[in-house]
Design goal:
- By secondary structure, the chain is α/β, with parallel strands linked by helices.
- The protein has one domain: Rossmann fold.
- It is built from seven helices and five strands.
């Protein structure tokens, strides 16, 4: 851990409050680095689904969530996840359009499609675009945990 030069800080024989805060701000512990490599983006316009992911995976992974496709693309550009759970039907930019843009831009991110309506042609198209799985809602908790563990371990 890098220590900040605190020569101008008044010393009391112990680490000052400010030194502690600065050390935390400018250091990345090994565990924190591992946490950053376990980023998951969840994209769904159903707040209940987002809440479920938070409860299910929030304590083990760095979750980033959004309810729309445009924001998902911005997040992928600025805070690249290793795994995306992506809803198909959303207002604005839907999940298939997000997936197409990711592949067009050659983004290397694993995508799992989540949907409430199964259409075989949609599943085939998603898999042809590189989606690694296609999950039906209501989501199987064991399956979601298995996929996250498999991809991020």
């Amino acid at each position: 851990m890098k220590k900040l030069d605190t020569g101008s800080c008044r010393r009391t024989g112990e680490t000052t409050f400010y030194e502690t805060i600065i050390d935390k701000m400018f250091s990345i512990e090994e565990g924190e680095m591992e946490h950053l490599s376990k980023r998951i983006l969840v994209v769904d316009d159903d707040q209940g689904i987002l809440d479920s992911f938070e409860v299910l995976l929030g304590d083990r992974y760095d979750l980033v969530m959004t309810d729309n496709g445009y924001e998902a693309l911005r997040i992928i550009e600025t805070k690249p996840p290793r795994l995306v759970f992506l809803d198909i039907k959303m207002p604005g930019l839907d999940g298939m359009d997000v997936l197409k843009r990711l592949r067009k831009d050659q983004k290397k991110v694993e995508v799992v499609i989540i949907t409430a309506t199964h259409r075989e042609e949609t599943e085939k198209e998603a898999k042809s675009l590189g989606a690694i799985d296609f999950l039906m809602k209501p989501l199987n908790i064991v399956e979601v945990e298995r996929i996250a563990s498999q991809i991020l371990s």
